[in-house]
Amino acid sequence: MMKVLVTGAAGFIGFYVTLDLLKKGHEVVGLDNLNDYYDPALKRARLAEIERFCAEQSVLEAFEFVEIDIADRAETQALFDAQAFDRVIHLAAQAGVRYSIENPHAYVDSNLVGFVNILEGCRHQKTAHLVYASSSSVYGMNTKIPFSTDDRVDFPISLYAATKKSNELMAHTYSHLYGIPTTGLRFFTVYGPWGRPDMAYFSFTRKILAGETIDVFNHGQMERDFTYIDDIVEGVVRVMDHIPVMHQSDITTAQAPYKIYNIGNNQPITLQRFIQAIEAATGKKSIQNQLPMQAGDVPRTYADVSDLMADVGFKPATEIEAGIEHFVRWYRDFYQA
Ligand SMILES: NC(=O)c1ccc[n+]([C@@H]2O[C@H](COP(=O)([O-])OP(=O)(O)OC[C@H]3O[C@@H](n4cnc5c(N)ncnc54)[C@H](O)[C@@H]3O)[C@@H](O)[C@H]2O)c1
């Protein structure tokens, strides 16, 4: 059994990854700064849920929560000095595309400074595998579909995407220089129970239930590879055990134990179909305000997951209608809506 550092453990994906690792018998140190980008009460409720699980299973000592801001170099270093980790799953980040237009510095602090602090911790500990979250947003407005990890991703259209692409470059550098195995995961629009209130499915559900109008950008013609949370967790945990070996690609002689995977549903659907799934699950019709495309948004995402399938024998497959039904059921229960 391993001791795993999960950063962003009070976040949506980190919460589920933590629970899954605990279920598999691992020890988890969950790190988060509980910032108020969205309601910290939801983050605390996720932590309470983890603690409830540990109490039920009599494994309270298997989970430790540390409230640390990864942008704080001294605090992050002190954690790595105090504890040794077999694996690091780095999910803490300033997420969201639109907010990067409003508050660019939050992205620099958490996603660039914070990322280097995590890399440095792994470097000094010689961590056996660092798995970190990248994003489908690195593909920007690429026209070739599906998006492959072999495609060029040099044209980000939001600072968020630029920081995620930067993470991949920094990880490659550390893999090459210090031999730290790193795997970057480009997640494609993740949704599910305990999800993120800043994402469209969350506000759509709230507003449809309340009979309020929803803003539909690009007239609902955007396509997204919506990926259910359970599929993301399965991918993350399988990848954790698949450590990249030293190799070089066709276009460089630089050797590095470095890998990037897409984790997406491989089945893009229109925003309108997504809304219909929410309508079906809530039993209510939406009132829509049609709007043009927003700055920083991409028209379509579509993951090529052949590498993931070849290396870890898994690809996401949850149907949108089933996933949304789980989300809406959780939402009604959690918010008594
Ligand atoms: N949810 C998606 O659709 C999606 C898609 C692509 C990539 N990602 C990436 O996956 C990761 C997890 O995303 P999520 O959806 O769970 O988001 P989230 O916001 O729910 O979780 C991130 C967590 O990190 C914490 N955090 C942020 N900055 C921090 C800092 N400086 N120090 C310590 N903790 C900090 C936050 O408090 C939050 O709890 C992120 O890296 C995100 O960019 C998510």
Automatic annotation (TrEMBL):
<keyword id="KW-0520">NAD</keyword>
<dbReference type="Pfam" id="PF01370">
    <property type="entry name" value="Epimerase"/>
</dbReference>
<feature type="domain" description="NAD-dependent epimerase/dehydratase">
    <location>
        <begin position="4"/>
        <end position="247"/>
    </location>
</feature>
<protein>
    <submittedName>
        <fullName>NAD-dependent epimerase</fullName>
    </submittedName>
</protein>
<dbReference type="InterPro" id="IPR036291">
    <property type="entry name" value="NAD(P)-bd_dom_sf"/>
</dbReference>
<dbReference type="InterPro" id="IPR001509">
    <property type="entry name" value="Epimerase_deHydtase"/>
</dbReference>
